[in-house]
# Entry
Amino acid sequence: ADGDAENYVYEWYVNGAWMSVVTGATLNSGNFLRGDRVYARVTPTDGTLGLFVVPATLTISNSIPSIISASINPGSGNETTTFTCVPAGWNDADGDSEGYAYQWFVSSAPAGTTNTLTGASFVRGNTIRCEITPTDGTDNGTTQVSSSITIGNTAPSITSASITPASGNETTTFT
# Structure
């Protein structure tokens, strides 16, 4: 009311413990973890301390994990190929362990939920793609979708060859 400059004194508390090294209006994430209870005591001052206000306690929630992309390795193949769905760029601000949920599609139909897919699930000409959802055990992040791959032809093969009859002369017809 008397026109003095507006100033504040900040006191941060994490789980009831005063963070004496933090004196500004911002408490950065290096000072708390998921599940911690945080509050600030803010006191207005104009050279003389005023009354402080203690707001409600805030509980720090989980940070949602993310990945940058999903891809299929190898990038081409046939019915003898085992394909692997590969995540890239894991990020979780809480530092939680990497976890993934996988979903394969063969010609748009769901086909499996592991990180690999074998020829038992597809034939020549089918298209395959995979989706990966990052999870930290608490929350799921945004699903990333791979590019599609068209399954190629598998070359025919034989296991052996033989000549019949096993012996003969100039008049024998061999097969």
